[in-house]
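Could you join me in thinking about how sequence relates to backbone shape in a protein? We need material for that, and I hope you will provide a protein of your own picking. Label the sequence line and the structure token line clearly, so we can match residues to local backbone shapes. Would you write everything just below, so we can both look at the same thing?
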Amino acid sequence: MMDVGELISEVRRLEIRTRRVVDDLVGGAYRSRFKGRGIEFEEVREYAFGDDVRDIDWNVSARMGAPFVKKYVEERELQVVLAADVSASGLFGSGAKTKLRTQAEIAALLSLSAVRNRDKVGMITFSDRVEKHLPVRGGRAHVLRMLRELVATEPRGRGTNLAEALTRLRRSLKRRSVIFVISDFLDSSEGRADALGMLARRHDVVLVRTEDPAELAPPFAGTWNLADAETSARGVIHGNARARGLWAETAARERDAFAREAARAGAGLISVRCGEDLVRPFVKFFRER
């Protein structure tokens, strides 16, 4: 992965180049996307005339023999948590940027946008295990420390176990949070859909999928010697027109299936291609939602 100085320089260039769009993202679309999510349960109290019947806690009411309602307080700030994939599949890149570099830049963009909005940010990194867990805190200094940890990490695992990472988050987060999962989602772990659905029931989950253009439609013919970075499995494909067409069709079906999985879980989905504009997909997502 890139060194810290290179990442921070890139983030600064990104901020300057897209300042107006990011300001719009933070000042309007970002906040409005999560409007109404920043409430927290405080207590139950006896029903009073004028209370919304939708707030009635039927379990408590049954025990007490009288109607009781749930009371909420508005949170002054959002709690944003990044879950960043550092598995070996991110080492792939057919252009100037690998998926890991793209994911690091996405983490920088989101975390810096959050602290500019006075939200607190935390992060976990994961491979086939949770590698690091940085607590939720506020301030730019904390974000820079997070980014330093991200780019300097040397993961113990090579594979991907998203289910474990999502389960760890669900168990550790006591307060409702906005969670961005940044990954290529090349994950065959059992229980991923269930873990995602359980997390999204309490938290606002957005899946940020990084894709390399060559994974979607190979741009070249000839013979391909392929190796799986996570399992070391190898293979050879003769890249004629038929093989390239089948590759593109398979990739399209997989993308559609993943989009349906995210929708069933109640999670948002943003796709970012390596080498393309990072900000535009987020602005589009926030405004549409």
Summary: The longest strand covers residues 39-46. The CA atoms of residues 108 and 220 lie 33 Å apart. Strands lie at 39-46, 68-74, 79-85, 120-126, 130-137, 178-183, 204-211, 222-227, 234-239, 268-273. The two ends are 33 Å apart (CA to CA).
